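Narrative progress, year one. The postdoctoral researcher (J.K.) led the effort to move from monomer predictions toward full complexes, under supervision of the PI. The following entry was the first complex the group processed end to end, covering 684 residues in total.
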Amino acid sequence: MFLVYVIAPIFQSISISLYDWDGLGEKRYVGLGNYIELIDDEAFYTSLKNNLIWLVLYLLAIPAGLAVALFLNQTVRGIRIYKSLFFFPFVISQVVVGLMFAWFYDPSDGLMNIALMAMGFDAIPVLADETYVTYGIIAAGLWPQTAYCMILYLTGLNAVDKEQIEAARLDNARGFKMLWYVILPQLRPATFIALVVTVIGALRSFDLISIMTDGGPWGSSRVLAFYMYEQAFSEYGFRMGYGAAIAVVLFLIMMVYIIAFLRKMYRDERRG
Amino acid sequence: MSFNLKQKFGMFIAGALVSVGTFAGEIVINTDTSDPAPKAAFEDLIKDFEAEHPDIKVKWNLFDHEGYKTSIRNFLTADAPDLANWYAGNRMLPYVEAGLFEPVDDVWESAGLNDSLASAAGSMTIDGKKWGVPYTYYQWGVYYRKDIFERLGVGVPKTWADFIAAGETLLANDIKPITIGTKFLWTAGGVFDYLNLRTNGYDFHMALTQGQVPWTDDRVRKTMANWKELLDKGFFIDNHAAYSWQEALAPMVQGEAAMYVMGNFAVAPLREAGLTDDQLDFFQFPIIDGTVRLAEEAPTDTIHIPANAKNKEDAKKFLAYLGRADVQTKINKTLGQLPINKNSEVNDDKFLHAGLAMLSSTSGGIAQFFDRDAPAEMAKAGMEGFQEFMVKPERLDRILERLEKTRARVYQ
């Protein structure tokens, strides 16, 4: 199964990326032509840059999730209700998140711009502005992702050894020092999982982009996965070969991450 | 041209899910006519056809717009229906070239369509053969708030100078002259089409969309300079890149904007939103260069027989039926659009009468739409460029160079 559904398509993609093919007619062998075109394609660099922005900024979900988790990790009456309220954004679908934020950003009737205008600023059309659009979408994505990280940390906090905290307290550790030297090391497994799911989440940004901007304005919010989809499958896309070439590049980028991940797993196992 | 662009996610799977099982006397038709009016029109069309041909059963698979555009590629190759709707002009070229559509000259011949559908024959012909039967079209032009124009004493603009003057009067009264929503790009294509048709004429426009003229040509720059004049004066609503075409209707309904360069399908939602025929009217896109013959934009919708269809004989009966005058009268009454058949009657509606009068007196030629006249990749790059130009006009050179690069690749 793994061979048929995962390994084989990788090699198929690599082979298609060497052809000029519209998905219907004859394939024409162009060698590295698609890659050479890719090097000279502005849209490709925009997408690549956006992918990096996504990867870096999406990691904010981890400290944000930790902060919320620490805040919620207390025993107050009704804390379960607050916890579930914070968890709520992760439960709703990405499509709904995208729509809600699109309304929030709406230049004339959106809550954000009404607030900005009430404070005397000009309205910012976040989703129609090439400089803000990617950040706007990332902010939307961070909302559910923070909730996800929060849950991971909440479970992790349950497992923190009470005795160690007692001991640390006796040694006069408190506040940030307590967090950094005593609690965080115990949360390492949770942090690791949070990192993995956040990186994966950043690469799965497709749904939000599709819903909120459709890659626009003029393609400035595209990421590689979206660009690939556009070239190969969308209304105006008839270029399987070019799409496959983008996919191969994306695959190579992900390989770096996957190899780093596997190396860590391997090392941990040897140590454990 | 796709006027109901919605979000596209995971929908190309839909094509794979449609199962087609045929037996003798059954035809399968796939359409994307999922909006209320087109859906009702097709329901009636199929019911009436079955009543007339009791031995033929029609199986109808209804798709949504976005899903259809991607799934048509799958079902034409893998699991072809007997009939499928699509669009005229260059938009059908990839399927004709890939041998996925069946030529239907015999239907045109035997049903007398060469005469009755003559006006659309050109846009249905590729390599000297006809590849489908057109059943409806609609005009493009400027839809405007008549009440606002009258209140401010603005007459209907006939020339570019009138048009600029009208816009300036509107602006002086805090009304944006033109509303538009370019989030899904194609609306900007409509504006470009008209500016280019009026500046350089039909022949140049066709040469450009067919890749015979470089995008860096001075005539293209002339068109863009006219467009820039509108942009510099602030004729278009702000933040249009954030809106879909439906969202851009709102400023017009609220009286914050007075004109919309659009297809006739915009009339129905404007009426639904509460505008009466006293408030809403239509005029032909103004003349820019008096020496250029007036050409119009009127996209045509069509039905085709896939080459892999199983029951072509009955499918051809359906096409012959679809070409008939009375059938086109009825279907377009429901659609609120114009029939192709010259013997059909036009619905009693002032916008349709205006459109018909304009199109039947057109001497310069009838364009389909930017994304039907230009091949898909060029259309996408072009419309993206237009959207960028509308927000950042100072980038014109870079945009045109990019389009020229795309042209060099697409038409090779």
